[in-house]
Specification:
about 60% helix; two-stranded antiparallel ribbon; extended; mainly alpha; 4 domains
């Protein structure tokens, strides 16, 4: 009779790592193993086996309640839940979006893109993007600017046509009185955008998907800086790892390593 799987803390962390899209090699490094084979051995001792099709470890259970096992593997993050639902046979974007409370599959796509994932038609699920992640507010600002510029061009064209007609009709002076107002709107275009999208002009922390394996690096710093990092992390809901990644990438870009950073972010 097959033994029941043992869900200790490390097993849960390993399964959570796979739910977040990590590989066996990455997780092996995180837990101090030289190769993933040591990870396999650890999981086998707790009655799990590797499932290549699912890309994770599955329990070697016989009469264990299947639903109970599945509940223990439910990912804790919303992104991970999205990925887990797409692993099920026959899953489609509209159904997944409805199950997780999105209005439709387009809102789901916007949510995933803002968190560094893009749709893969080949794999039938979302996959990680590399490089800087375009956030939702930036997409809205770009759309508004495009609309504003397009509207301005149409207004200029219409103004030109109306000016010619007005001159022909002898009422050009009535149109000219609006020119100062149009010039004022043009000079304050950025302020108008901020008025339509409150907070859009505030600097947003860029987000990056950095290729590689997560490692631990200890550095010495003043306790005051350390406290600022902790405070900012809690207040802005951003991990300390992301803070240091952004800081290092921006530093390298500004002080002579721009090409190297761009190559890193575009690499696979």
């Amino acid at each position: 009779m097959t033994k029941k799987p043992i869900y200790d803390e490390r097993v849960k962390e390993i399964l959570q790592g796979f739910a977040e899209g990590k590989s066996r090699e990455e997780l092996a490094k995180e837990f101090g193993h030289k190769t993933y084979k040591s990870l396999d051995m650890y999981m086998r001792r707790r009655n799990f086996t590797w499932d290549g099709r699912k890309g994770t470890y599955v329990p070697l259970y016989s009469r264990v309640d299947r639903e109970q096992v599945e509940l223990s593997l439910v990912p804790s993050t919303k992104v991970a839940r999205v990925l887990a639902l797409f692993e099920k046979e026959g899953a489609d974007a509209r159904t997944v979006a409805k199950q997780l409370g999105f209005q439709d599959h387009r809102e789901l796509a916007t949510y995933m893109k803002a968190r560094g994932y893009e749709w893969s038609s080949e794999k039938g699920t979302y996959v990680k993007m590399l490089g800087e992640v375009v956030q939702e507010e930036e997409l809205e600002v770009e759309a508004l600017e495009s609309t504003f510029d397009g509207g301005q061009l149409e207004a200029e064209q219409e103004q030109g046509s109306q000016t010619k007609a007005a001159r022909r009709g002898g009422i050009g002076g009535q149109l000219e009185r609006f020119l100062p107002l149009l010039e004022l709107l043009e000079r304050n275009k950025d302020k108008l955008i901020d008025a339509f999208l409150p907070g859009a002009g505030v600097a947003k922390v860029p987000r990056y998907i950095v290729p590689g394996i997560a490692t631990v690096k200890s550095v010495h710093m003043m306790n005051t800086l350390r406290d600022l990092v902790v405070e900012y992390s809690l207040e802005k809901n951003i991990s300390q790892r992301e803070i240091f990644e952004v800081a290092l990438i921006e530093f390298f870009r500004k002080y002579g390593y721009e090409r190297e950073v761009e190559t890193l972010l575009k690499s696979s």
